[in-house]
Amino acid sequence: MYFNDKKGVEQRTYDAIVIGSGISGGWAAKELCEQGLRTLVLERGRMVRHVQDYPTMFKAPWELPYADRLTREELKHYPVQKRTGYTLRQSTKHWWVNDLENPYTEIKRFDWIRGYHVGGRSIMWGRQSYRLSDLDFEANLTDGIAVDWPIRYRDIAPWYDYVERFIGVSGKKEGLPQLPDGEFLPPMEMNCVEEHLRQQIAQRYDDRIMTIGRSANLTRPHNGRGQCQYRNLCIRGCPYGAYFSSNASTLPAAEATGKLTLRPHSIVNSIIYDAQNNRAKGVRVIDAQTGQWHEFYAKVIFCCASTLGTTFILLNSTSEHFPTGLGNSSGVLGHYLMDHHFMCGASGRFDGFADKYYKGRRPNGIYVPRFRNIDKRSKRQDYIRGFGYQGGASRVNWTRAIREMGFGPKLKEELTAPGPWRMGLGGFGECLPYYENRVWLNHDKKDKWGQPTLVIDCEFKTNEMKMREDMKASAAEMLEAAGFKDVEVFDEGAYPGLAIHEMGTARMGRDPKTSVLNAWNQMHDVPNVFVTDGACMTSSACQNPSLTYMALTARAAHHAVTLLKKGEL
Amino acid sequence: MMAINRRTAIQRTALLIGGLLSSGTIASILEGCTTVPADNWHPKFFTPEEVADMEAFVERLIPATDTPGARDAGVHRFMDAMLADVAEPEDQQAFKVGMEHFRQEAVRRYGQVFAQCEATQQDELIGVWEQKVFAPNADEQSVDVKFYKSAKQLVFLGFFTSEVGATQVLQYDPIPGVYRGCLPLEQVGRAWAI
Question: Which residues of A fall within a CB distance of 8 Å from B29?
Answer without folding.
Answer: 58
